[in-house]
Amino acid sequence: MTTAPAGQSRGVRRISLDAAGIPLSALLCEPRGGAPRATVVAVHGAGMSAGYFDGQALPDLSLLTLGARLGFTVLAVDRPGYGQSAGPLPEGQALAEQAATLAAALRDYRARFRTGAGLFILAHSFGGKVALLTAADHAAPDLLGVEVSGCGHRYAADAFSGAGAARGGRRSWGPLGLYPPSTFTTSGSIVSPVPLREQADIPRWPKLFRRVAGRVRVPVRFTFAEHETWWRHDPEALTELRSRLTAAPRLCVDRQPGAGHNISLGYAARSYHLRCLGFFEDCLLTGPARPIVNAAPATNTPRS
User: Is the pLDDT of residue 225 over 70?
Assistant: First the structure.
């Protein structure tokens, strides 16, 4: 019997992608037998890594294994400045550069692996910014939709000052009872320092969002955790958010009960992941007919 590497679920393996000369590490889980229905590209937030989507505190937290059981390939990428690229990019990349790098990595992935009907991006926190910018400026014809959690367009009033700033990292979790007790011992390997260039872009997002939102031309779903404190998600803010995404053919805004900012590591992870995959199923069902993309790539040999 094959055992999973420490810190990974069974069936999950590590690969490396070539992003125009920049090596990006990633976790990959593919469905057994046959081509995937589609491929879900998972993009982590600031201070995390690809392992965020393969939670180990409980058996059913992992997006990678759940997606594969339901017929999707799930590819969780370490963003520029994390994982394998931390050496070549010790200060990381600015947001616009990260979107271009992710797009390049996905071109390499398409050339080597079966993608099914196309790609979805499921992104968390800072990764949501990268996902939206990728969809706005680097969307390939096979990008079918984007899901974003832990990211809005207007920060909470105290996000960087006063009581909010004093809470520091606690606001990234919310009430600790929302997470399995072993979360903070099993997640140590997925927490990483935030690269300096990425840190500098964090407060600039509201202005950048206003410039790029109207260029997103794929279905988009936003999820706000019940205990999300980084972002405004009151009715006024959500009305404004919707008004900016004028070119998206479908826009959904949902709330995840019983969850804090790091939804995919909490008890609500399975519920949240199923909702995301349901949204992707809807996109496959209602979107324009598309041929299977990369059903038989030239090679399926992962790089180590």
Answer: yes
Closest alpha carbon to 213 in 252, 243, 253, 255: 243
pLDDT of residue 186: 80
Judge contact between 220 and 251, C-beta under 8 A. Answer: yes
Q: Which two tokens stand for residue 279?
A: 């949204």
Instruction: Report the alpha-carbon distance of residue 192 to residue 264 in Å, rounded.
Output: 17
At residue 10, the 3 state secondary structure works out as coil
- Of 262, 117, 105, the closest CA to residue 179 belongs to 262
User: In a 10 Å sphere around its CB, with 0-12 CB exposed, 13-18 middle and 19+ buried, how is residue 87 labelled?
Assistant: exposed
Question: Global pTM?
Answer: 0.92
HSE value, Cβ hemisphere, 13 Å, CA-based, for 95? 27
Give pLDDT tens digits for 231-243.
Answer: 999 999 999 999 9
In the block, residue with structure tokens 């590819």 = 75
CATH of domain 13-286: 3.40.50.1820
Report which of 225, 232, 237 is spatially closest to residue 156, judged by C-alpha positions. Answer: 232
Structure tokens at 250: 């479908």
Contacts of 98 (CB under 8 A, 6+ apart): 79, 80, 92, 130, 133, 198
Query: How far apart, in whole angstroms, are the C-alpha atoms of residue 109 and residue 102?
Result: 10
Q: If 0-12 CB within 10 Å is exposed, 13-18 middle and 19+ buried, where does residue 240 land?
A: middle
Give me 200's structure tokens: 């500098």
- DSSP class of residue 36? -
Q: What is the pLDDT of residues 196-215, one digit of tens each?
A: 999 999 999 999 999 999 99
Give, as one character, the DSSP assignment of residue 148.
Answer: E
Burial of 85 (0-12, 13-18, 19+ CB in 10 A): buried
User: Taking 60 as the threshold, does the pLDDT of residue 76 lie above it?
Assistant: yes
Strand partners, 77: 26, 43
